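TL;DR need structure tokens for one chain.
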Amino acid sequence: ANTENMRLDIDGNLGIGTTSPSSKLQVSTTTNVITPLLTLHNNTATNGSAAGASIDFVASSDATAIGARIISTRVANGAHMDLRFHTQRDQFAMIIDTSRNVGIGTTSPTNRLDVSGVASVTSLRVGSNASGEGIIRYNPGGGNGIGITTGALSSSGIGLFVSHQNNNRNVGIGTTTPSSKLQVDGGVQMA
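>> reply
TL;DR here they are.
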């Protein structure tokens, strides 16, 4: 018996593996394993940022006006490819390189995450999820400031806290509410 594998419906939707496509292209399968549904292949032996394959996104009557693009560039022989993301009329935004480093605003990250420009975070973990890890946290509440802690941003767990409430820039060790330029909650030993 013949099996229908592809259908182009009256609305111009193309279905592969489905007889009722709901978009311009719908590729479907029913396997319980990771299955490549789309392969972009550029048969090139050239290495460099100009060699590879891309998916282009255009929202204009001008089909050449690329608004955003995902590019995989060939870095070295074999399956060594970067993954680049472009936005705003095809301007570079982010890369995941072959070393699994992520660069935002830079095409050559040397760390797991390199950001060229200002990054805004409310909590940054230093170390693993294990107990005793360090966390740099921003406190937007009543005791505005930034703290280095091993858990919740509270006086009981705080290591160092820099307040910027009312621009006072007070520093607290063992407290999130320093009332002077340096306030230490606990003993101080000087050698």
